[in-house]
Specification:
This protein is of the alpha/beta class. 46% of the residues lie in helices and 14% in strands. The longest helix has 19 residues, at 195-213.
Length: 214
């Protein structure tokens, strides 16, 4: 039996956020920190967040984005996790609210599917598809259906409110350095600097479930 491993990115695979790392690479970190803090306090919505952040990145090059990706503080073992999933002929997906142009770069590490917000540097966010918690569940359900799998054949790894619907719905979930609400919903939790160790917890859950079915 195969399996689908569903990962959030910011806070789960990456310490902090892609937006901060992109801005750090072009010298706009302080401005972006202020925008994120305003957003976290609920003073602006998702679209207002992007409308303040995207102009900071106008003119950014692919090379600069690559540099931001490569210099980002990834948790230990990210590449090893996706290599292990591939070696087992299982499937992986990363679904993030961060820009798709950043999330897509995880495919070079073996991620099968990558989804992110369809924003572009320098352009307004109006009319642009931004990933929500509900979208994460919908995307996961579509992939499971395409692969001929069920919720029992899936493990989700996440840390924050964007993972809420997944953690409310799926039976196999691992909270990674997560906020309290996600920890409360999760099947189990991991706190630490290694996503490999968090993945092994999820691996144990799904393997145990498969043994029961068998």
């Amino acid at each position: 039996m195969t399996c689908l491993h569903v990962f959030d990115m910011d806070g789960t695979l990456l310490v902090g956020s892609a937006c901060l790392e992109i801005s750090r690479s072009i010298g706009a970190l302080d401005e972006t920190i202020n925008i994120e803090e305003t957003w976290v306090r609920g003073e602006i919505n998702d679209y207002e967040f992007w409308d303040r952040c995207l102009p900071l990145w106008e003119g950014i090059s692919e090379e600069q984005i690559d540099n931001a990706f490569n210099a980002s503080p990834w948790l230990d073992g990210v590449e090893a996790v996706f290599a292990d999933i591939q070696s087992r002929n299982e499937n992986s997906v990363v679904i993030s609210q961060s820009p798709k142009f950043f999330v897509d770069r995880l495919q070079k590490w073996g991620v099968h599917h990558a989804f992110g917000s369809l924003v572009t540097p320098g352009n307004p966010s109006s009319g642009v598809k931004i990933v929500t918690s509900e979208d994460k569940l919908q995307i996961t359900n579509k992939l499971l259906s395409k692969l001929g799998l069920t919720h029992d054949d899936c493990v989700a790894y996440g840390d924050s409110s964007s993972d809420l619907e997944l953690f409310k719905t799926l039976p196999h979930t691992v909270a990674i350095n997560a906020k309290e609400r996600i920890r409360e919903l999760a099947r189990t939790s991991y706190n630490g600097s290694s996503i490999w160790e968090g993945y092994l917890i999820g691996r144990e859950i799904i393997d145990k479930s498969n043994r029961k079915v068998g």
